[in-house]
Each structure stands twice: as C-alpha cells, then as structure tokens.
Design brief:
There is one protein chain. By secondary structure, the protein is α+β, with helices and mostly antiparallel strands. Helix content is 21%, strand content 24%. Strands 1, 2, 3, 4, 5 and 6 form a 6-stranded antiparallel beta sheet that branches. A hairpin with a 6-residue loop joins β1 and β2. It is globular.
C-alpha cells in the first residue's frame, strides 16, 4: 500500500480510499460511499471523496461543492487541497464519516 502523505487523511482513511479506487477500476458499477468529509473552515468548500485513483494516488474522486451552489461529482488533487487556504488562511480540515448502521 502507498502511505498517505496528507495531514488531513489518516492512514486508515487513505487505505480505504485506495481500496475503493482499486475496486472502482475492476467493477464499473461500484459507487463508493464517501470515506471522509474534507472542507475549508473559512471558505465554504466541501469534498466527500469515496476513492483515490490507484494509478495517481494524489487524485481523489467523489462529490464536491465549492460553496457556489453548484455541487458536482468529480476529481480533486489532494496535493492542491493540502495547499489550499481560505480567507482566514485556514488549512483544509476533515470530519470523520461513520459507517451507516441498519435501522
């Protein structure tokens, strides 16, 4: 496995994102749930990556909302996110997402 070099991802989150990316390459019908919520505390942007491209472990994919009212599903460079700063110079942060439980 490739180790995470991004402070906003734990090793477990990175490993799960990478495993989801590998599964997505094998199964075109696989649609992974988000593993982590990444956001800018002072800019209103949010990313919900569900996987990482195994061939380019800097690229994550999933829903994103840049805070302008036009959310979309796409890819994002984790290296760029690690350098991103909002108006108050805050770094990108994360919120853990719990696995859904049955009712």
């Amino acid at each position: 496995m490739v180790a995470s070099r991004f402070a906003f991802l734990t090793e477990a989150q990175f490993d799960q994102l990478l495993a989801n990316g590998q599964r997505s390459q094998v199964r075109s019908d696989f649609d992974p749930l988000p593993v982590v919520k990444l956001f800018t505390p002072d800019a209103g942007a949010t990313w919900l990556p569900g996987g990482i491209d195994p061939d380019a472990p800097d690229i994550a994919f999933g829903p994103c909302d840049l805070g302008m009212g036009f959310p979309e599903v796409g890819c994002v460079s984790l290296a760029e996110l690690s350098q991103l700063r909002g108006r108050l110079i805050c770094r990108s942060s994360r919120t853990c997402i719990s696995a859904p439980t049955g009712a």
